[in-house]
Amino acid sequence: MIVSLFQKYIRYFSISKMDYISVFITLGGVTLLVIALCAPVLYWAEASAVDANIKSFEDAVWLSFMIVTTIGFGDFYPVTGLGRFIAIPLAATGIGVFGTLAGYIGSVVLDKVVRQATTDMLHQQNSRIELLAKQNNELNAHIREIASENKELNRMIVELSKNNEALNRKIDHDTDEILKALREK
């Protein structure tokens, strides 16, 4: 069931398995390295103390895991100054590991959200561009129609101008004839 959830998580967030595995291997490796370095020192510092409750190496390893996982000390806890000092890098490692893991998961989730928002925004922009292109095509068709009508109107104006010139010449001629006839009388 956990593997199935892990696979769904990876598919949903489009994380490459190698990226995810490399993060876990790195975090796990760092954690184990710190435990491997601190547990023997913790055992050495605590085992010889009079009131120590860490009596075996296994107790020291167990305490190291409890500190790293931030669960707490529980039945085992350091009583010497050196033992407490060694608990600091263990606690810092636990906080760092869980903080890094939470940050990584958060960044993956945020990346998915941003990617989805960007995709939605691009779809909206594409829809708007398509609408504007359609309106532009309609306006171009109207402009061509008006230009065609303009061409026809210009042709009619030229024809009317010619007719008007001919009519003006006829009027001028007729006026001259009338004036000539009136003068002769």
TrEMBL record:
Membrane-spanning intervals of the chain: 20-45, 85-106
Subcellular localization(s) per the UniProt record: Membrane
GO MF annotations in UniProt: voltage-gated potassium channel activity
Keywords linked to the UniProt accession: Coiled coil, Ion channel, Ion transport, Membrane, Transmembrane, Transmembrane helix, Transport
InterPro entries: K_chnl_dom, VG_K_chnl
Main location as per UniProt: membrane
A GO biological process held by the record: action potential
Segments forming domain Potassium channel: 32-109
Recorded GO CC terms: voltage-gated potassium channel complex
Domain of life where this protein originates: Bacteria
Key word Glycoprotein present: no
Statement: the UniProt record of this protein carries the keyword Cell inner membrane: no
Signal sequence extent: none
Bilayer topology: Multi-pass membrane protein
Coiled coil (residue ranges): 122-184
Protein name stated in the entry: Potassium channel domain-containing protein
Species of the source: Candidatus Terasakiella magnetica
